[in-house]
């Protein structure tokens, strides 16, 4: 295991009991140490019983995609397969993961918002799935690609808990943010992200990441690792990566 500096360990422990902190000096904070966190970045994953979850999308027209999740048992038999958004918005399932309790988690990407019953917030969700979370809507303006982090019921496939994660332009309009991997560590849901515009910082709702400028971009994007609580209510820690 990598050695963890005292300042990094303090940052992690402090984040569990307070609003969190941002350690800008160490690009590999303890909450996102690959020696401590099981990370997932692929479209298929197996749980401890050999069940497999596969995410992707159906190309339903020349200009529309619908995200799906499929579950198969250890013998390869399909147990269920559901679409999670069938509106005119493009959607894709991009990452499948399981936590230490074998609960399935999925990262979706969406190119826009909708108020329809066929949108991801209403189509196949528990009534409280998007209640009391960090961000419960796509936001305002345009159709940039944003992320949705979701925990599924392994039996029914319903979204039980989910939050959007987006960047914003200076005028407040939603802009592109992608999640590249997801992991779990001591009650935290950890994600790595890349954003084209101003990313969020800590807290219970979007607030622009503090003291960030265009000079902090790497290969044209802001790269930030986030740690959420398991209920996706709060960003407990956020670290800007500079390499």
Q: Gist?
A:
With 243 residues, the protein is mainly β. It has one helix spanning 6-17, and strands at residues 38-40, 44-46, 52-61, 64-72, 78-83, 91-98, 104-110, 146-152, 159-165, 167-168, 174-175, 177-185, 188-195, 222-229, 235-241. It is 5% helix and 40% strand.
Q: What would you note in describing this structure?
A:
5% of the residues lie in helices and 40% in strands. It contains one helix and 15 strands, in the order αβββββββββββββββ. The chain has one helix spanning 6-17, and strands at residues 38-40, 44-46, 52-61, 64-72, 78-83, 91-98, 104-110, 146-152, 159-165, 167-168, 174-175, 177-185, 188-195, 222-229, 235-241. The strands form four sheets. A five-stranded antiparallel sheet has the order 1-12-13-14-15, covered by helices on one side. A four-stranded antiparallel sheet has the order 2-3-4-5, with no helix packed on it. The longest helix is centred in the first third of the chain and has 12 residues, at 6-17. The chain is globular and about 50 Å long.
Write down the Rg.
Answer: 17 Å
Fraction of residues in β-strands: 35-45%
Percentage of helical residues? under 10%
Major sheet: arrangement of strands: 1-12-13-14-15
Low-confidence stretches: 1-29
For the biggest sheet, the summary is: 5 strands, antiparallel
Average pLDDT value? Answer: 89
How many separate helices?
A: 1
User: What is the string of helix and strand elements?
Assistant: HEEEEEEEEEEEEEEE
Number of DSSP-assigned strands: 15
C-alpha termini separation = 21 Å
> Which structural class fits the helix and strand makeup?
mainly beta
> What spatial form do the alpha-carbon principal axes imply?
globular
């Amino acid at each position: 295991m990598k050695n963890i500096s005292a300042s990094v360990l303090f940052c992690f422990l402090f984040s569990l009991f307070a609003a969190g902190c941002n350690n800008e000096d160490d690009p590999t904070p303890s909450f996102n140490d690959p020696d401590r966190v099981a990370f997932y970045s692929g479209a298929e994953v197996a749980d401890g019983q050999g069940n497999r979850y596969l995410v992707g999308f159906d190309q339903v027209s020349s200009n529309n995609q619908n995200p799906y999740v499929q579950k198969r048992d250890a013998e390869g038999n399909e147990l269920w397969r559901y679409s999670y958004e069938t509106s005119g918005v493009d959607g894709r399932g991009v990452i499948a993961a399981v936590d230490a309790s074998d609960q399935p988690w999925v990262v979706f990407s969406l190119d826009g918002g909708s108020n329809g019953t066929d949108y991801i917030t209403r189509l196949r969700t528990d009534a409280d799935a998007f209640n009391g979370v960090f961000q419960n809507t796509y936001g305002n303006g345009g159709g940039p690609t944003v992320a949705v982090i979701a925990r599924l019921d392994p039996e029914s496939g319903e979204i039980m808990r989910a939050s959007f994660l987006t960047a914003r332009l200076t005028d407040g309009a939603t802009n592109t943010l992608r999640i590249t991997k997801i992991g779990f560590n001591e009650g935290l849901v950890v994600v790595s992200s890349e954003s084209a515009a101003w990313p969020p910082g800590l807290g219970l709702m979007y607030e622009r990441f503090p003291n960030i400028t265009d000079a902090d971009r790497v290969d044209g994007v802001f790269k930030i690792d986030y740690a959420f609580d398991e209920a996706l209510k709060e960003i407990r820690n956020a670290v800007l990566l500079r390499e």
